[in-house]
From TrEMBL:
GO molecular function: cysteine-type peptidase activity
Protein name: Ubiquitin-like protease family profile domain-containing protein
Keywords for the protein's UniProt record, in alphabetical order: Hydrolase, Protease
Family membership noted in the UniProt record: Belongs to the peptidase C48 family.
Domain of life assignment: Eukaryota
InterPro entries noted in UniProt: Papain-like_cys_pep_sf, Peptidase_C48_C
Domain Ubiquitin-like protease family profile: 30-185
Annotated Gene3D superfamilies: Adenoviral Proteinase, Chain A
GO biological process entries: proteolysis
């Protein structure tokens, strides 16, 4: 299974749900979901990217009309309308995956990258910029008052504390683990997502996926 398929499976749903499966035990995910965390899939990222060209050309961005496909993520009852941290996977050039956290309380984008040698901070900022610029305006459409009257682009940071893994094919699964770890306990738990734990965590995930779809082993 490709990283894209795996990530969409783990983050699938109606665009308003937390992951169905987790390398962490179910109780920790339940705890994270009650702490104003929201997990979105790759479709949300694609919609943001597709919208940016028109958004960037709009003189009055506060009155920009976002497409209906994006606005459905803001429907009544969707976790994104209440979340302080919003997570999703992000892919660079169909080759490398990172985890992304939009922290509304701190007005910043946190990029959880297991291989920082592939791109400079400038390159990361350029690719994440559409999200950092549009997201405050998108949340305002949901009547979220977490930003100022004239929202500014979210700052972008890529913590160097994240353990590094230069194996190309590991980035997809690693990004999932980093997202889940950060949602539960922040960067401190992310430090535990080292290359040597991937095999064990992959086995745990396989069991959880099987039991969710087939039944208890």
């Amino acid at each position: 299974m490709s990283p894209l398929c795996a990530l969409d499976l783990l983050f699938s749903g109606d665009g308003c749900s937390h992951p169905s499966y987790s390398i962490l035990d179910r109780s920790t995910i339940r705890r994270a979901s009650t702490q104003q965390r929201c997990f979105l899939d790759t479709r949300f990222v694609s919609l943001l990217s597709e919208t940016f060209v028109k958004f960037s050309k709009c003189a009055k961005k506060e009155s920009y009309r976002f497409p209906a496909a994006l606005l459905q993520y803001l429907c009544v009852g969707c976790p994104i309308t209440e979340a302080t941290r919003i997570y999703f996977p992000f892919n660079f050039d169909k080759k490398h995956w990172v985890g992304v956290c939009l922290d509304c309380s701190l007005s910043k984008v946190v990029v959880l990258d297991c291989n920082t040698s592939l791109r400079t901070d400038g390159m990361i900022n350029k690719e994440i910029r559409p999200i950092s610029e549009m997201f405050p305006f998108l949340l305002r459409r949901a009547a979220r008052q977490v930003f100022s009257k004239n929202p500014k682009a979210l700052t972008i940071e890529r913590p160097r504390i994240v353990p590094q893994n230069h194996t190309h094919f590991d980035s997809g699964f690693t990004s999932i683990l980093l997202i889940q770890a950060h949602a539960v306990a922040g960067l401190d738990l992310c430090k535990c997502i080292t290359p040597d734990v991937l095999d064990v965590e992959a086995q745990k995930t396989a069991v959880i996926v099987y039991e969710e779809n087939v039944g208890v082993l």
